Amino acid sequence: MPINYYIFFCLTLFSIGIVGVLTRRNAIIIFMCIELMLNAVNLLLVAFSKLHHGAALAAAPESTAGADGQIFVFFIMVVAAAEVSVGLAIIVMMYRNIHSVDINFLNRLKN
Amino acid sequence: MSHLVFLVPLFPLLGFLINGLGRNQLSKTSIGAIGTGAILLSFLVSVRLFMQVLNGGGGVDTLFYLFKTSDISVPFAFQVDALSALFLLIITGIGTLIHLYSTAYMHEESAPHFARYFAYLNLFVFSMLLLVLGSGFVIMFIGWEGVGLCSYLLIGYWFKNNNYNYAARKAFVMNRIGDLGFLLAIFWIISKLGTTEYAQVFEGVSKLSTSDITAITLLLFVGAMGKSAQIPLYTWLPDAMAGPTPVSALIHAATMVTAGIYMIARTNLLYTMAPFTQCVVAITGLATALFAATIALRQNDIKKVLAYSTVSQLGYMFLGLGVGAYTGAVFHVMTHAFFKALLFLGAGSVIHAMHHEQDIRKMGGLHKRLPHTHLTFLLGCLAIAGIPPLSGFFSKDEILAAALQASPIYYVLGLAGALMTAFYMFRLYTLTFLGEARFQEDAHHPVHESPWQMTVPLWILGILSVVGGWIGFPEWILPDAHRLESLLAPIFAGSTALATEHAHLTHAQEWMITGGATLAIVLVIFLAIRSSLRKQISSTPSTGLAGILENKWYVDEIYDNAIVKPLQSFADLLKNVIEKSGIDGLVNGVGKLVQYGSRQIRLVQSGQVGNYLLIMVLSMVVFFLVWFNDSTLMKLLHNIF
Amino acid sequence: MIPVLLILIPLITGIVSFAFSAADMAKKIALVSSIATLGVAVWSVCCPPASALRFDEAWLPVMGARFTLEMDGMSKMLCLLTGISFPVIFLAIFRQETKSPAAFYGWMLLSQAGLLGVFLAADALLFYFFWELALIPVYFLCSIWGGERRIAVTFKFFIYTFLGSLLMLTGIIYLSYHTPGGSFALSAIYKAALSESQRNGLFWLFFIAFAIKMPIFPLHTWQPDAYEESPTAVTMVMSGIMVKMGLYAVVRWLLPLYPQSAIRFADVIIAFSVVGMLYASFIAMQQNNLKRLIAYSSIAHIGLMSAALFTAQPSAYQGVMVQMFSHGINVIGLWIIADAIEKQLGTRLLSEMGGLAQKAPTLAILLVIMGLANVALPLTNSFIGEFMMFNGLFRYNMVWAAVAGISIILAAVYTLRMIQKVLYGTVSPVTETATDIAATTKWALFIGVVLIIAGGIYPQPLIDLTNDTVQALITKH
User: Fold this and answer.
1) Which end of chain A is more exposed for a tag (fewer CB within 10 A), N or C?
2) Do chains C and A touch (3 or more CB pairs under 8 A)?
């Protein structure tokens, strides 16, 4: 498959994520949209990694060039997992306090 | 020359300091003795100096330098010559008498105020002595402002009365207007000649152009107008009557108002070289003489009449100066000092006796009660009216003779003024001393003659008013008997050399003219006495011309409405509108604009997370668009799609 | 040696003073410290060796700024003025209670250190440093101990002067890039190679900063507010000494740097100054608030000084030198009296006063003397200065001199009006309970009166003291 398809697909996913974050008020959905954006980036990283690695393998069989992209993905997944645990904890606390997960209730820090 | 000259102003200064600082400790007797003694001592020194001048002494005595810079130096120096020595005698001599008189006149005051009074009086004399003794314009200016200050302090002596305070302020401010002219003249002289010393200025006078001299003399004359109460700056002098009566005597006779005459006499060379200014001086003097005389005709306050008569007499002096009769003007200063001091002190004696009543409509018949005051006052009236052989006759005649030579119009108008003088003086005299008594006598405080401290000065001045003119017999009465002229000749030598020689009148003509004038004056006097005796005294305000005169031609009101009030409104406009809304409004406006701007921009931070995210995304898009400028971006997109 | 002492004494005692919470201790420290400073200032005037008048150390080598202090005649004169003023001020308020006196006197001394630094600095960056150092304590003094509207007024005052300072800082930095070796030293700045338009631009950057400080019309509106709302002791510092910073800076940092620009813009600046004189005098004439009246009168007097500075006439320069000293003494004297009156009567409105002369004769005499010095009566110190300045102005342009001269008439009008309203007339209700001034205040004023009279009769020492500055200025022009 040409790399263009991956890019196009990731762009779409990412855009869906952005639009979701911008338009939805439910904290959990926003959270999921953020995950969507992260995973769009992950997918792209893997796709490019594969592309570069394939090219490098063709030149030299022992080459590891391009593999770092996939390593990044692991890091991102770990950070995302940590972030999810903290974020979900905040959302749970929020729900307990205000019985809602609407982010527009969070403007209380103003003033 | 003798180095005594510094003593002359020193004594009054010491008197001022002792009385001023010790006002709470000293007794009234010692205060009076210190005050009077200080002036007496400087009178004695002045006599000695005068003798030296008569014997050809005199000169400039530098004490120290007031300031000295790279481009100008002003010595603090005293100059003794015939003119200043003569003025010294007048100032300290009459000053002593007035001080002596004051010890009795002011005895009702408490000791601290009594001391304050004498301290001011001494300071007044000190300032006047500085003015006269200074060897340059700056020292003269110091004295010039000093007498203005002292007049302010003394006019407002009874400071609880706000009207008096306004009068005092008016005097100071009007004087300041004149002072500005004087000051500008000094700067003009410095910028052209680089010095302020008379001797050097008169030496360098040939370096000045005629327009320079005219400007300088005109500016100096503005100063003289303020100090010597000439139109248009005369209104402070009649109001100055708010002060104690001896102060009026001091202001009118010995100090202050004669300063303008002294200054022009001192700078006579400049004036002679500026014919235009001389003309201005003469016309101003004449106009003032007539104008003030008309007002004096209808005044009912004993001091106001005398005040306007002073303004009028000063006008004569300026007329004399304007037509080049410098000796005549100085002569008139001297005789005027005698009889005006006498008249004021006499008026003071009357006021004292009447328990501070000043309205002549409420007097009358005082000649029996106040015999000394009455007689001496009569002498003063005769002298000021110009009856020969009293002093006023000689000096006024000399001025009028010079005026006649300059222009017959000057003479006719001057004579008209003299007739008016005779009229209002004898109206005053008659209403005060003759006729029926028009006052209610208080049994506890009967009307009584004043104590010796007051009558002795009256008699001394009375005698001087009679004989004072005899040092200046005109040529046509007694040849070579004008001792004053020969005394002052060196001072006016430069002007005499420059002056154009007029055709002299023959002695017969002089006799005729003077005789006719005297006859007219005598007639007017009888007229005045008769009309004043007959007339019904009413306190209702007069109408028509008499009303206008009673209200002094409404000059005060005109000044108030045409100058003072518009200036105040202008100041209010500046204060309330321009300053508050204009300049400060602009400054605060900038501040408000910043505040308003911040308030608006603050709204961007709404607290809505969505807004922040939107802004973040949009900013990123913008960032990418700018960072990858369009061609790169296009290439990228082209590759993708 | 001397310059360092001058700055260090108030600086250290100021910091120490913060530590003492007892009111008396702080007062005494302040008084002793200010007298010690005065002693050093007097020493500097009494011809010490030339080496003692200069101090030079490395400060910020990276930026090329050095800690250079120098004293010439004008510096000595202004240090002497500062030296005299502070003890007089402390003496005048000695009997008054202030809240948290330790901090109050501490800030006062720190402001003195800053002021002295301004008069001594010979390095542009150091000058700027002290310029701000003098401002900050005053800011705190006003905003903590001031009157009702103190916050708004102090804010305005601070922002206004700070704006000017920043313009100057821009100018200083720009200038240092154009000096040989990128130095900030005064001597190097004199040599900076600049084109005419650069000079003109820099001239205005500096001048606006100084004009705000002086202040001259129409940049003056912070002043009446600040003078009115500040505690009077601070007002004395501001009007007696701080406004001299502006004048001093013009002489030290403006005229020698851009003489051509100064000549080119002289007419504009003199016009603003003279108009400002009349403007302020007119406003003073109708002022009902005693403190604002004095403030506007001070603006009028400063206008004459700033006009005189741009006439390029030796006598005008000399007059400014004399007048800077005289004005400091006179205006501090006036403020002391205004403060005493306000403390006594509880009001500063002239319309409510009257008849104080009967209740407080000593105060009355002192107020009259101060008032007369304010109208520049001969034989008071300000006559000498004003005479020389008017003389210079007249030589420059006689029309301006005549117009400016009107202000001496107006000065008489508003000063006498003030004296009359306060002292004379019948006793008003607020005056009823008044008594005469405290002994320490009396002594403070007595010192002022002695200086006024002495300066009016024999000002020559002052003229000789500042002669070198004037000569240097003339040769630069």
Assistant:
1) C
2) no
Residues 217-236 on C with a CB inside 8 Å of B are 218, 220-222
CB-facing half-sphere around the CA of B131: CA atoms within 13 A = 29
Chain B residues touching residue A22 (CB < 8 angstroms)? 610, 613-614, 617
Both tokens of C223, joined, read: 């002043």
Least confident segment among B296-305, C176-185, C212-221, C439-448: C176-185
- Other CB atoms within a 10 A radius of the CB of residue C56 amount to 13
The pLDDT of residue B501: 64
Closest-CA distance, C41 to chain B, in angstroms, reads 24
- Interface size B-C, in CB pairs within 8 Å, comes to 140
Q: Which residues of B touch C278 (CB under 8 A)?
A: none
Residues of A in Cβ contact (< 8 Å) with B605:
110
Render each residue's pLDDT in chain A as its tens digit; 111 residues: 788 889 889 999 999 998 888 888 888 898 899 999 999 999 999 998 888 888 888 888 887 887 888 889 999 999 999 999 999 998 898 888 888 888 777 666 554
Strand partners, C69: C55, C121
Residue B475, classed as helix, strand or coil, is: coil
Instruction: Characterize C96-122 residue by residue with b for buried, 16 or more Cβ atoms within 10 angstroms of its Cβ, and e for exposed.
Output: bebeebbbbbbbbbbbbbbbbbbbbbb
User: Which residue(s) pair with B472 in the sheet?
Assistant: B482
Residue with the bigger pLDDT between B101 and B479: it is B101
Strands B73-80, C54-60: pairing is unpaired
**Out of A18, A107, A109, closest to residue B617 by CB:** A18
**B622-631, C162-171, C390-399: range with lowest mean pLDDT:** B622-631
CA C142 vs CA A26, B48, C108, C156, C232: distances in Å: 52, 63, 11, 11, 10
Query: What are the Cα distances from residue B344, in Å, to B160, B317, B611?
Result: 24, 19, 93
**pLDDT tens digit string along C252-276?**
888 888 888 889 999 999 999 999 9
CB contacts of C417 in chain B (<8 Å) are: 169
- Chain A residues whose CB is inside 8 A of the B609 CB are 103-104, 106-107
In this complex, the residue of B159, B574, B583 whose CB is nearest that of residue C424 is B159
C-alpha distance from residue B163 to each of B110, B158, B242 (Å):
22, 10, 8
The CA-CA-CA angle for residues C279, C281, C286, to 5°, reads 100
Contact call for B568 and C285, based on CB within 8 A: yes
Residue whose pair of structure tokens reads 């993905």 in the numeric block:
A73
Summarised one tens digit per residue, pLDDT across range B203-240 is 888 888 889 899 999 999 999 998 988 888 888 888 88
Q: What angle do CA B461, B463, B466 make, to 5 degrees?
A: 110
Q: What is the pLDDT of residue A111?
A: 47
B142 closest CA partner among C378, C396, C147: C378
Chain C CB contacts of B64 under 8 Å are 458
Single-letter amino acid code for the residue at C418: M
Q: Are A103 and B609 inside 8 Å of each other by CB?
A: yes
Buried b (16+ CB within 10 A) or exposed e, C394-404: bbbbbebbbbb
For chains B and C, having 3+ Cβ pairs within 8 Å is answered yes
* A107 shares contact with chain B (CB less than 8 Å): yes
DSSP B255: S
Give the pLDDT of residue B539. Answer: 64
Nearest to B196 by CA among B124, B144, B256, B252: B144
Per the rule left: phi > 0, alpha: psi between -120 and 50, beta: everything else, B605 is beta
**For residue B641, is pLDDT > 80?**
no
Structural tokens at position C437: 């001034």
Q: Which of C291, C339, C289 is nearest to C441 (CA)?
A: C339
